[in-house]
Every structure is written in structure tokens, then in C-alpha cells.
Amino acid sequence: MKLCLETAAMDALTVRLFDEINESNMAWIIAADHALRDAFGEALIDLIPSYTTLLVHYDCQVLSFAQATSLTRKALLHLEPTAIQNSQLHEIPVWYDESVGPELPLVAKRAGLSVEQLIKQHGSHDYCVFALGFAPGYGFMGLVDEAIATPRLKTPRRRVAAGSVGIADRQTAIYPLLSPGGWNILGRTAVPLFEYAKRGAPLFRPGDKVRFKAISKAEFTAVGGDTTPIEERP
Fold first, then answer.
1. Could you tell me where the beta strands, DSSP code E, fall in 51-106?
2. For 89-222, which CATH class?
3. How many CA atoms lie within 13 A of 108 on its CB side?
4. Which CATH number is correct for 4-75, 2.30.30.370, 3.40.30.10, 3.30.1360.40, 3.40.50.300?
5. Cα separation, 200 vs 158, whole angstroms
6. Which residues have C-beta within 8 Å of that of residue 63, sequence separation ≥ 6?
7. Distance between CA atoms of 109 and 76, rounded to whole angstroms?
8. pLDDT per position as a tens digit, 92-139
């Protein structure tokens, strides 16, 4: 771990702890999150942890830039990784099918796998939630096995259905609501991530783990899953 402070805005600092993405980073990132929240107290407006950094948004009417910088360095001076005690493991049921996961056969072919093998591979790892962003409830997760890692689509879709599960490079994620997107879509879940986010309690938090479980079309529709195909090709 290293500590590098970067100016993000007149009232925000980027605290960089790592240069490369790794699941082991999260114990340090969560520890830094706790330490900075305690140190800034009521002067803290927002704190956003991510893969290798934390964004600290503070009240510039309470703290000057120099004070915020000093406070950050002092808070993290003796930082130690912490056990992620409040993290959760979420099992997400997914209907993997080409009608709702158009890139399913393409990703399998690229990896030299059958579709069934790809589905098994995608569900064989507990993915770490590194960050939240892009849309409410959207969790960036990884790291996907290099064997099935796939670049983003050259031309993004204008419409990706809510619940779509995709891969981009070594990341995987679920689209919480209908939106544009350039990830390779493998299937769909009926878990209403956007509804959790609207209530102010996102299902996923940085440091959580997510496990995908393949289910049948009948199981998917039984829990209210939308089987409308993705028709638009990128």
C-alpha cells in the first residue's frame, strides 16, 4: 500500500492507495474508509471508495485544502488492513440464455468453451464488489477469470434491459435499470437492484461478494423475470 493525495476539486481529495486492481485491496480501502469518516466527522460531505482510491468530499467552509490534506495523512498514518466484518455474500439467480444474453455464445467461443462451460465458469467465483457507480445500485465486480475476460463491445447498445448480467474485460456487473451499455451480456436476473437503491439501501456495498447461480427459464419467470429478448444488436 502507498499513500498519494491528489486534488479532485476545490473541496475534494482523491486518496490513492494502490496502482493495480486486486481483491486484497479492499481490506485496506474499507479500513481507510472507516478512518477517514472518523477523522472528518461532520466536515465530511461524502466518501466514495473504489478499486484503488477513495474520493473525499469535504465542507470547504469548515476545512481548508491544507487542513483536509493534513487530516487525511494523520488519519491514515498507521493504517492497517481490516477484516471486512460487515460484508455480505449475495447469491444472484441468473437465467443464462442467448435471447436475453446475446453475447453468451460469442464469449464462450472466444474462451474456447461450450456455453454450458462458460455458465459454470462465470458462476464458479465469488466476485468482490469494488465500487458502485454508473447507475444507482450498479456494482462493479471482479475479478473474472482471465479465460473468460472479454473486451467491451466496439459499439455500445442504446438499450440494455434491467437485470442484464454482463462481462467487460475482467469485470462483471448487473444493469439495475434500462440504460445504454457496452458490456457483453450473458443473461438476466430478476433481482431489483434499482428498487433497493431508490430506498437508499443499495443491495451491494464495496467489499461485499456476489455469487451467480444459473436457473431455468421457469424459475426465472416464477420470480417475475422479464423474458423480453434483447433485439438490438450493437
1. 53-58, 89-96
2. mainly beta
3. 19
4. 3.30.1360.40
5. 27
6. 40, 43, 71
7. 46
8. 999 999 999 999 999 999 999 999 999 999 999 999 999 998 888 899
